[in-house]
Amino acid sequence: MAEEPSSSLETVLAGIEPASEEFAGKARKRLSAHGSYDALGRLGDAAVRLAAARHSTMPPVARRSVLVCAGDHGASDDAQRAAADRAVRSVASGRAPLNVLAREHKAQVIVVDAGMFTADLGPEVLELRVGDGTADFRYGPAMDRDVAVLALDTGVALAMSLVGDGLDLLGLTALGAGSERSAAVLSAALLGQPTDVMVVEALVNNGLAIDAPAEPRDALAALGGYELGVLAGACLGAAAVRVPVLVDSGAAAAAALLAVRLAPAARGYLFAAQAGTSHDARAALAALELAPLGQLAIAPGPSVAAALPALDGAARLLREIPTRSLPVV
Description:
By secondary structure, the chain is α/β, with parallel strands linked by helices. Helices cover 50% and strands 12% of the residues.
């Protein structure tokens, strides 16, 4: 393989440090001072992970954004593309369930067009188009490898710009015709676990071994989407500056898996909003060893905003539980 070209991605990959075991230990000790840690279950675990990710026993989560990344896929039909177009415009207009929940929990929603077939989705959509929809991965690569790297770079730059404006927590979700299908196939390639005939055919047609994970950039180029690359890059960019990332149980889980395959240390900055609604999403979250914050069976997208109160509570526990031993109430 040719030498990887220098990019912001490579700089970020080299700079991601593991989440802090020191601050995880301090947070666990703080919550255990009067017997609270064991009683808190996943909420206590989330508090410890927040402290580790932020390298602080008082991790802030007040400034948060939900990034909705949209991209269409060649392995989709006209009806799916029309539905995806409507969904993107609904979120961009602020009328979707995700927007309602985000407003309730004081999170900014940012809609990004990473490569829909329809251009110019309105002034509310941030255009960071990597291409005009991908090719059909069932019959050849979804994109060139250098385009896959560009998508990752775009996500890194986007995350860095959000951090520059002030960011404590980044939520990720995806929209687009064929996005969930592409995410399933991409997860299968990375995990070496094809799930159905379509997945097997896609892997074989693209020259990827079914029984071994593909190199992440190659897998993204062969089977992924522009929005998945941008989301994975955003994971990496956020992790590089110690900002926790909350992923939904759909395409964003596959993007997070891709990010961790590129930089294993990024896993320490990830949180899962909900349990996966499909075998592929559950497999991706299991591989990432992420326990879901919620169990409401909410669809990907709104699930990110719905999970924000759990992280609020986790952070508040660390701020307000006293360090000295007190009776358990």
